[in-house]
Amino acid sequence: MRHVIALDVGGTGMKAALVGADGTILREARRATDRERGPEAVIAAVLDFAEELRAYGEPAAAGVAVPGIVDEANGVAVYSANIGWRDVPFRTLIAERLGGVPVALGHDVRVGGLAEGRVGAGRGVERFLFVALGTGIAGAIGIGDRVDATELGHIVVRREGAVCGCGQRGCVETLASAAAIGRAWGGDAADCARAVGQGDPRAAAIWDDAIAALADGLVTGLTLLTPDTLIIGGGLAEAGDTLFTPLRAAVAERVTFQQLPPIVPADLGDAAGCLGAGLLAWDLTSMEVTA
How far is CA 130 from CA 123, 150, 166, 177, 268, in A? Predict the structure, then answer.
């Protein structure tokens, strides 16, 4: 079957898939990003991962989603605080590794929002804000057919807070991301969420602090972007009601004049970025992808 290669590079893990013309994921694989080895090693691992997928057949195109600041027009990953790379010409590098096929490069959360908007929780919504809670925090605003990235994770909510990789203090990402919760808990954020459900008071205090910081950041986002729906995805969204029940309450407590939109979980889970990268790749071939 005709397919494209899709790659989603995160701060913790990388996902890859072969995506058919109808949006079906035909084959998928995962591996650790291993960012502690340094940015050059991560870049090499991304290229190797793409080449491995080529073994299943010649792709029509490839799409790659990466974090941080991305120059999509020129196919360059400009900067990532979580991984540490600067000015990486991914479109050129991957095209060379794959024998010259067309390659699209996109911001990971923008393409996740693209997927949610076309085939997920934002389908049919005129204006939505998609927020991914993972190793870092970022957002994407969808208006009609257009989806643009926002650096919502770098809204400052605690001026005396910890220094962020972006150079500011007290960004919402330093307080409410999975990495931040994991640091405070001394383990995995998912373990902290489970401990909250079991009534652990220390876990509850860490979780409450994270929810408060996240709600502060989200209200700023709602004020600026006025979405009809707020979609929450990423690894932390897998905590379900442990996240959504207190988060909805915290946001509702903070709004005054702002419109309070429905706060809903993403439909596509952590596959959104990879599927969105596949949609970008199919867009390059001028083939319409339908749900």
Answer: 12, 9, 21, 15, 12
